[in-house]
Specification:
With about 120 residues, the chain is an alpha+beta fold. It has helices at about 25-40, 40-45, 50-65, 80-110, 110-115; strands spanning about 15, 20-25, 70-75, 75-80. A hairpin with a 2-residue loop joins strand 3 (about 70-75) and strand 4 (about 75-80).
Length: about 120
Amino acid sequence: MKEKAVFAIRSKIWIEDMEGKVVFGLGRYRMLKMIDRLGSMHAAAKESQMSYRAVWMRIRTSEERIGRPLVVREGKGSKLTPFADKLIKQFNRLHTLVAAESDEVYHSLMADHLS
């Protein structure tokens, strides 16, 4: 019978500009996914228990640092730009690859030392 793992590695990635300021990460990824699903920044803010202003400022800051729009108004709601849609797909892919690689490296280098 295989022994149950006691520890696991966790990693968090984000993208910074050359001044060390966050451009995009898991929090903004989740915000964009919620906006896409709910069709509204207000609804995304409510669901994430954040103020609309906090959500809007993070999105706007990312847009300014990237130099491209991520969200556009559509009627009384919001929708992602095609660029934002591609960005979240690519970030998800990057995040998945980093997590898988981290697991593999952890198991080959550290797991035996902590059991």
